[in-house]
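Practice set, problem 2.
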Amino acid sequence: MTTKPSKDLETFENPQSGRDYTINIDIPEFTCLCPKTGQPDFATIRIEYVPNKLCIELKALKLYMWAFRDEGAFHEAVTNEILDDLVKAIDPTFIRVQAEFNVRGGLYTTITVEHTQ
């Protein structure tokens, strides 16, 4: 396989940096591991952001999300890590990351984190 998971988040210049607009990205196939049991956790990650000078490159984002597949993480920790990494990479005007985790033991978990300049 020529494509491998990577935590490198590539960016490109915002083509309309003089205008506020919103980018929405849905990632319905996110997986990580439960740090207690090692079993897989499945989630839909939703990213909403208003770019500043940079935008996130989508293939790099896909590989970034793939990199969590073999990592153990609590839902709260992984959602905050994703937000922190995106803020570091693109310094957006506003960003919201929402992680909707599938049912486990009769419970659904949704974590929402935000950052504003």
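Problem 2, part (b): a different protein.
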Amino acid sequence: MSNPNQNDFRARKQLTAAALSAVGAIIVGVAASSAAIAGEPLVAKAGPTVQQGPAPAAPLAAPLADPATVAMRQALTRLYPNTRFGDIQRSAIPGIWEVWMGNNVAYVNDEGRHFIFGHLYDMQTQTDLTAAKKEQASLQAEAARPKIKFDDLPLSDAIKVVRGNGQRKMAVFSDPHCPYCRKLEAEMAKLDNVTIYTFLYPIESLHPEAASVAQSIWCAKDKAAAWRQYMASGKEPKAVRCDTPINRNVALANSSGIFGTPYLVFANGTQAPGAMPAAALEQRLSSN
């Protein structure tokens, strides 16, 4: 015959084991639910495991990039491996992309073959769709760009043009294949009483042939005439080899944070990226 005290002890022991088993089942269920919510694979484990503290939250998934935009960037990078592309997005015109390269923007077809440089206008609303973005890009680049002083420029490495008394002075970093540089040349031709120093700055990543053209222009008998003729008509002077400052100009621009053309430096200490109309140039020069 069993001892009553022993029977009570056995009953309490069985109840305790049952309670611990139930707690273990609850812990396993909670852990399984947490893993399922977090997207973790459920793996069977030998026996319950008590986790100290709450389970870490699952990281938020990064937003997926538009596949078409990714494909367009890959296509442009494959076609033009030496060009650094910035923002790429669809334009307001179907089949045309807005592509940024530094401070320069182009509108490109789906094939990535044809580039249109300039501003896109919505004539129905009379809105320049490019101007605001270009201004914002210029301001950001200007804020981040180290300053270069006119007095520190090696003017002997530039093509010098004097108009009138030449009292007002400015310098331009220019690429012979840059369409905005040609536009600026047309505007600067309207100025008088100014001395313009043009630093030949071919950007090889954008214009692979520009360096050879720049060399031909610098080595021409009359540098200023060769530059003026090429920018007006595209007629390249006869190829002649000579020592040029082009590599020094490129190094100077890069060390100064100038990665786009045209870039203007005025004797009064102000600077400006991009082409400017003659009226704006006059305003800058008036304070020289």
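Answer key, part (b): The first helix runs from residue 4 to 37. Residues 137 and 183 are 20 Å apart (CA to CA).
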